[in-house]
Amino acid sequence: MQQRAGPLMQADAFLRATFNGALLGADAYSTIKLLLVLLGVSRVLKDLRRASRCEGLYSWLMACISPWLKRLPFVQSQLKKETDKLRHDIQPSLIKDLTQPKTRLPAAGMAEDKVLKLMLERRELDTKYWQDGRVTGAIYHGKREYMDFVGIRSDGL
């Protein structure tokens, strides 16, 4: 009683005959090299298919070659120039709220009310951006009781 081969068995037999014929007489290195090339080609085809459906071929190509372009000396110098320009433009707006930073102890002490006023001013400057949600990178509790607990505890504040 002979069973009829199903579609999977037929496909297996076809692939076996095709690969055995193609690799007949090939050494192990050639076989592995062919396998790696086929894997690489399938990966590129898969990426191209995804890119054509989602982000577009131009975006995919730019994402592939931009790391290599960034290594070119004239591109690096242009990027550095633009980064420095951006830093120069943004830095004043980031630092404008600083209250004259003190790097040394003053020769004469300050009056208590002046110190408390400076501390209050500093606290307002420190919290005005993150309370509005404009600063990221940390988790802020935001409740006044907590801020009083971790901040400066003083009846004057």
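^ that was protein a. below is b, sequence first then the tokens
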Amino acid sequence: MKNNLLRIPQGTESLYLEETFRHRKILRHMEDMCEGWGYLPVQTPVFDFYDNYRSLLDSKLEEQSYKLIDREGDLLMLRSDITLFLARQMGMILKEEELPLRVYYSDSILRYQNHEDISSHEFFQAGCELIGKPGREGDLEILFLLAELMKSLKLPESRIHVGSTEVFKTIAGSLTPEGDVLLTKYLQTREEKEIRKTLGRVYKKEVALELSKLLLFIGSADEFMENAGKWENLMEGAIKEPLEHLKSICEGWSEIEGFDELFNIDLSETGDQAYYAGIVFNAYTEGSGTAVASGGRYDGLLDHFGYSGGKPASSVGFSLFLRKLEKLSAIDIANFPGSISDESKPASEKLKTARKG
């Protein structure tokens, strides 16, 4: 048996002194801003019955989830996705008259990482969910809140990339399941030739070419608006509606000065969870090799967990990977208690005197 006294499990995370102080200060800053927008705090359980989530887990999240058996023999799942746990919680207790509901959370999640990246299995997430506000209005509120949070943290140059699961699902709907997996893979690595080849198995050559250009598009709102018109007619107009929705989002960005430059339309963003339906987005910041925030719309999730009100519990939200942001934020964290400030010296001197006496 190994001596574990001086070891910690691989992939766990702990914070120490100044690091913890900075983490708490930035978290408090985020919580204050969320409450200023009318969002209230919620807490989700650390574990729940695995069977409640089985049908919603894609193969990746299924593989990443920690599981254990309790004393009664029930299979439990540790919290690997706060949105799922929150949706179940809200689905069971939410009443129609409480909508729209705005909530925020901050907690740890546990996920097995792949064999190439075992540096961390424990992550700290903070995020917001807007429940009961469908369509453009809800999407814009969440996007603006995320943008405002990122601006207030004084991060390096940042962009929020917004895509649509509906565009991708409609295009990929004609492919085999294997073709769908391949298309997703090639989009992540942006292999245009392979994307065109995969689409060419079910679409005419010229259509496959235009669809590949569409799926690889990354650009400003103006650039997207210039191209969207010709794309709307592809596939006999099947993707017109989600493209029109993205156009309305772009128009919303221009309504508030100074925000449109923070957003890009990125149609290669397809969502990292199977339950997304509508817009999806990732936020990227200079200095981080991966997204520092992600989110999207998931309108049917609360219904799955028992919500039965007459008013739809349409939902949209985001999660921030706070530990990534803390390392990049230039926000001023003053007066770490370890070094006594001028204002606190009199009290500390009194304490020293009292101890000597």
